[in-house]
């Protein structure tokens, strides 16, 4: 990866989604050998834009073969770059009343939209289709089914407005979830568009598969109460997550969502020692995540472990909330006092919700924190921690940052305090890093090497 030529990097980067490009810029900024990757990623982040395609259907009395006009507006903020292109649609002749831009729900407009997708022959990572409220449009559903069946890059599919009663379309959705994919997939369809048999087919295939999941899969669809009750009885246990028999993935099943995600150890019932070790390990780290890459986890345990947890982290017993069936809250502070863990206990199935909270610093509090660090030796950010997590508003970050990071040199010139944006837009890391010799204007040699 480090030695790839510029032309090859340029070719590869154009296929990467925006989230991956943002990750590359963060990683490559401190690695000179990845300069080609950083350059191309930043260029694509600056130059990429969304195309808002608006379709205007012309008068139906125009001669056959006349081009339909499609106006492409390159985002709301780039009005001066609008352009007109012509798309020739010869396979289908539209008949009936005149259709204007205000009739976006009419079947003619929907059909033309499918024609545009076929003519431009582009692959889309996201496809959002608003179906007609005026009746069944099987052509749209069949065309969409054919499209998603051949698009490996599809990540987000959304259907709006009405219930879909098309077996070919339903089987296309089922196929998406049955196939092994290398990218995440999110599908959102109207309520009860899949039958119980369709959902059962997805779940049975997942259970009997090898359990591997490269990217998560989500199906958003509101189920009827009868359908949900049947699925609950057969599939859902005490925990929200149902682990795969081979422990490679897990199923999160709710009345409006079905998720296939990577297996985590907390998807199984845990004991007191496991929870206690997670909390103790979190205290020694920066506090960015509670466990792995999760900021919130829901745990199920036995009554004996429940009592041990209550005895250690809850100093007094409080009355139970009869309406929400929830016990009181325990807050465990991080050694940095910049973040904490909230433990909420639910009597249903002896369940605990553990969620990490981060303190949000205003500009004055941040400046005071940095000032205190400069008064100390500079070896640690705070206490014995060399890295901590903090919350900052966008306004504060704009005031202090240079691109994606900010540095403060210690008065002893032995270290720097680095503040860097994380993948979570509201979280930032503060860490102690080595000094950059080029930034030091006046070396204190006596302090560094001692007096002669």
Automatic annotation (TrEMBL):
Organism superkingdom: Eukaryota
Protein name: F-box domain-containing protein
Organism: Steinernema hermaphroditum
Lineage, highest ranks first: Eukaryota, Metazoa, Ecdysozoa, Nematoda, Chromadorea
């Amino acid at each position: 990866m480090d030695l790839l030529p510029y032309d090859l990097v340029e070719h590869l980067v154009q296929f990467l989604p925006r989230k991956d490009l943002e990750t590359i810029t963060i990683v490559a900024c401190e690695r000179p050998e990845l300069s080609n990757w950083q350059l191309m990623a930043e260029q694509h982040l600056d130059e990429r834009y969304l195309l808002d395609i608006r379709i205007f259907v012309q008068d139906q009395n125009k001669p056959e073969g006349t081009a339909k006009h499609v106006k492409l507006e390159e985002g709301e903020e780039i009005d001066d770059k609008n352009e007109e292109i012509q798309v020739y649609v010869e396979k289908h002749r539209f008949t009936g009343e005149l259709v204007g831009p205000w009739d976006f729900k009419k079947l003619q407009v929907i059909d033309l939209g499918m024609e545009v997708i076929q003519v431009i022959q582009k692959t889309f990572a996201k496809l959002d289709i608003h179906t007609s409220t005026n009746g069944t449009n099987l052509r749209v559903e069949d065309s969409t089914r054919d499209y998603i069946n051949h698009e490996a890059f599809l990540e987000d599919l959304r259907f709006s407005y009405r219930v879909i009663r098309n077996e070919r379309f339903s089987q296309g959705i089922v196929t998406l979830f049955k196939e092994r994919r290398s990218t995440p997939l999110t599908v959102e369809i109207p309520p009860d568009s899949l039958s119980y048999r369709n959902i059962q087919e997805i779940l049975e295939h997942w259970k009997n598969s090898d359990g591997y999941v490269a990217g998560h899969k989500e199906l958003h669809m509101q189920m009827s109460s009868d359908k949900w009750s049947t699925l609950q009885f057969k599939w859902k246990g005490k925990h929200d997550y149902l682990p795969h028999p081979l422990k490679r993935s897990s199923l999160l099943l709710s009345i409006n969502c079905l998720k296939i995600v990577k297996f985590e150890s907390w998807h199984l019932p845990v004991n007191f020692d496991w929870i206690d070790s997670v909390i103790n390990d979190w205290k020694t780290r920066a506090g960015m995540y509670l466990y792995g890459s999760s900021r919130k986890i829901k745990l199920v345990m036995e009554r004996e472990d429940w009592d041990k947890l209550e005895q250690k982290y809850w100093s007094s017993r409080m009355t139970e909330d009869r309406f929400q069936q929830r016990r009181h809250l325990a807050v465990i502070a991080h050694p940095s006092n910049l973040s904490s863990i909230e433990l909420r206990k639910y009597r249903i199935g002896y369940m605990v919700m553990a969620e990490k909270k981060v303190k949000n610093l205003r500009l004055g509090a941040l400046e005071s924190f940095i000032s205190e660090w400069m008064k100390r030796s500079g070896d640690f950010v705070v206490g014995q921690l060399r890295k901590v997590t903090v919350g900052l508003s966008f306004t504060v970050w704009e005031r202090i940052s240079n691109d994606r990071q900010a540095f403060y040199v210690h008065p002893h010139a032995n270290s720097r305090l680095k503040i860097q944006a994380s993948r979570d837009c509201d979280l930032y890391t503060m860490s102690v890093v080595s000094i950059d010799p080029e930034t030091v204007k006046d070396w204190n040699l006596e302090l560094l090497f001692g007096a002669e």
